[in-house]
Amino acid sequence: MERKGNLMTYRPDIKVFDATIRDGGLVNNFFFTDEFVKALYLANLRAGVDYMEMGYLADTDIFKVDDFGDWKFCKEENLRRIVGTNETDMKLSVMADVGRCNIRRDLLPKEESVIDMVRVATYINTMPAAIDMIEYAHELGYETTCNIMAISKANTPDIEEALALLAESHVDAVYIVDSYGSLFPEQIQSLTKMYLNAMEPAGKSVGIHAHNNQQMAFANTVEACSMGASFLDATVGSMGRGAGNCAMELLLGFLKNPRYNLTPVLAFYQDYILKLREEGLKWGYDIQYLLTGKMNLHPSSAIAFTKEDRTDYANFYHQLFDLDP
Predict the structure, then answer these.
(1) What structural domains and CATH numbers belong to the chain?
(2) Under DSSP, is residue 200 helix (H, G, I), strand (E, B) or coil?
(3) Which of 13, 55, 61, 145 has its CA 20 to 30 A from that of 67?
(4) What H or E segment, with its residue span, contains residue 118?
């Protein structure tokens, strides 16, 4: 499989996907102000971003509403408070986690919602439940993706079987998700080929959602793109859980499509992202996240390390060996 496109051209199939509110919400329990969300919405519109993820469709029977901001639950009235009826070219998305949402209760028919896409997040071993959710969302009129999390922990036969099932479903795109930030471009290349070989014959797209534990999020996103992935996730200022994600400012600066405009993203960064950092919110590459990425571990221990303001990196590294299965 050859690379698609080159550094001097652009591919019209590319879709830039902003996940700042959803992944960034894991940093502050989704307590974004309306001003922040509205400003990001307008910045994405001006920047030519194709999709904006507004947050999660989480189950209020599992998550206490008072413990989180509105974007953990994405109620229709709260969405409309920000975007109105979204009479724009930019589409809106929510994420639904298998086992952490009640999609049959909380997801409205598409004609009653400003949401355009439902992204179903699943681990490889809950694929049947994910496909059931995908089919339900499709029946309601939504575009859908399947985001297979922690793919670095899955074995090849299981991935191939999951992809075969998804190829037969109504899903529109399937995502490579480097949840632990442990993968390198060579591995991303191999995975992208595997995903495309399964999805392209079925008329489906492939996406990439990368984490920056080893400062590979941008490189891995570019690698997946060059091999043919078309849905590219990014967040402004790399804001996201733990080490964060591929930075939107890097991605838009890389892509050659003239309809993408970097300036609105830079303005949002300087006016809003810097303020969050000044207020004490922490995310982004640091040694503790490098170490969990290196060892292909969930970043929860590194997040706790960060909250405790620890700097005993060598000791933490050796503690991780007890967590490594």
Answers:
(1) 15-278 (3.20.20.70), 287-320 (no CATH)
(2) helix
(3) 145
(4) strand 117-122
Specify the DSSP class assigned to residue 28.
Answer: H
- In 3D space, the residue among 279, 275, 281 whose CA is nearest the CA of residue 240 turns out to be 281
Task: For the beta carbon of residue 47, count every other beta carbon within 10 angstroms.
Answer: 24
Assigned token pair, 121:
């997040």
Backbone angles phi, psi at 207, to 5 degrees: -125, 170
Instruction: Show Cβ contacts of residue 213 under 8 Å, excluding neighbours closer than 6 positions.
Output: 180, 181, 182, 242, 243, 285, 289, 290, 292, 293, 294, 299
C-alpha count within 13 angstroms, C-beta hemisphere, residue 197: 12
**CB-CB contact of 46 with 264 (8 Å):** yes
CA 12 to chain centre: 21
Q: How far apart are CA 126 and CA 120, in angstroms?
A: 11
- Which residue is listed with tokens 């598409």? 110
SS3 53: strand
pLDDT in tens, 294-315: 999 999 999 999 999 999 999 9
Model confidence pLDDT, tens digit, residues 81-132: 999 999 999 999 999 999 999 999 999 999 999 999 999 999 999 999 999 9
Token pair 């442990």 in the structure block, residue = 182
Residue 92: both structure tokens together: 């809106």
Give kind and range of the element (H or E) at residue 322: none
Residue 325 clears pLDDT 70, i.e. is over it:
no
In which element (H, E) is residue 50 found?
A: none
